[in-house]
What does this fold into?
Amino acid sequence: MGTILDGILLGGLYALFAAGLSLIFGVMRLVNIAHGDLIILSAYIALVVSGGLGLHPLVSLVIVVPLMASLGYALQRSILNRTLGKDILPPLLVTFGLSVFLQNALLQIFSGDSRLLHAGGLETLHVDLPAGVAVGVLPCLMFMVAVAVISGLQLLLYRTGLGRAFRSVSDDQEAAQLMGINNAHLFGLAMALSLSIVSIAGVFLGIRTNFDPSIGPTRLIFAFEAIIIGGLGDLWGTLVGGVILGVAQTLGAKINPGYQILAGHIVFLAILTFRPQGFFPKTR
Amino acid sequence: MTENVRIERSSRTSRIFAAAGLLIFVLLVTAPFYSGRSALHLLVEIFSYLALASLWNLLAGYSGLVSIGQQAFVGLGGYSLFTLTMFAGVSPILAIFLAGLIAALFAMPTAWIIFRLKGAYFAIGTWVVAEVYRLTFAQVSILGGGSGSSLPTQVIQSIAPTRAIRDNLIYWTGLFLIVAVLATIYLILRSRWGLALAAIRDSEPAAESVGVDNYRAKFLVYLLTAGATGCVGALISLQELRISPDAAFSVNDWTAFIIFIVVIGGIGRMEGPLLGTIIFFLLREFFADWGPWYLMLLGLFAIVMMLAIPKGIAGLLADRFDIQIFPLRRRVRLEEPK
It folds into this structure.
């Protein structure tokens, strides 16, 4: 019972990993292979910022989010926009190169030692529920933030002018441009938004577990699995996908710690086999 | 006025390269008689990378199947070789080829599941599958679990009684593999199947509309590359005499470097992997001591290349100077009236 609850809450973190990836795929059909490494990069930035200024990691987000957002905008305008087009190879290979670059840059700067963001006791705080189940405050907070981020994205996409622009570009890039939308700028904004969510995910990851420069690709895979399980293009579906993945992993780990990640992958492949469109398909 | 039109594939340069290729082949076959142990070792490594890069190019460059999970089959090949030789008493050289067969067998259910994903999502899907294999082999304690195992001495001695003969045998097997891989790819690309694959890469609906069975063509090419990749993986593990899940299923060694080779050399051209492999080994020779800096450099180099010269060096040579090593394109020539 406690295990399943842990898994559900862990799903919130995976939804945070996935939301940014899903957003940019929705807006510009870009799959960012470096997504996981960017999550780790923001954890390291938070480490430097909170260490240097003596801030709580969650407070350091005030600096990390704008920093990553600017990086996202610059990255999109300077490099990624030039890879977009009908051919899927250039964006895939360029972000793959970026992933290798980021991992090794972090390795060079911070070494391969594992790090942790210290959140002043928040990580061990828990609430006792009836029936002897204890639930951590941090996982609850992560889950609530995930719900808030997804609600915010939904509001932005369906209630604002910017959201309408995102959706129109997603439907038809050329028509959107004819209507006076500056696609290059809009893609920059989408990437900035994606990396803002990435920084929130990165800080929570850093508080929850040890991290080192090599663990980014696995986070990309978790994000991707959450998206596919939930069904492409549906953000609430992505949250459900994250929860399914989280529960599968915690149950797997309960049987044998070596099975944690494997169990998640196997549930993902099973869903891909029997329900390839995911649970809440939206696009196509 | 009627003119005689001739379709030709080979050109003067390609005939010159064919002659040079033959000379290089003779030099390589006789290499064990005049070169040292470490040179042979390096050559087998070069053959392995060239084979893996050519196979990846066939998948991504010619068939539109961008996989970042080919390490699945490198690892499966290696582990198959270890299993066959350690527990079934199969001779190691024979096991290399059986390992390829096993890898192709595993590729069938793999393809069946991940072919549901398209484009970039297919790429990440292949990666997940490779991770599943890596994590699974880390749980198999009879093969050493997460820390892996070494090939027992009696297995090594069963290749040949002396070390010199063993090295030569492994070398010749490697040479045979690379020649077989290149010849197979060349023949496929010149066949109807190759045309079908290029059509699929350029436009799936258009290929379907002219009668190509897209699914079948892709499925077969995926199986074939998986099998050949498995053979190469087995060869690598035999050369190393050691296997571990992290090394055998390494995304860096067997996919990142391979992508780098193909992107630099020229994707979608048979010459690409050849040129890319040469550049890769030269860079490695000079900069591998730089550690992370070297890999950062590789990553940046690949990004710049993809943005500035997306067709790679082979594409540049073909466009600028009309140089083609492997005669794959058809040209129409008008014959001079006599």
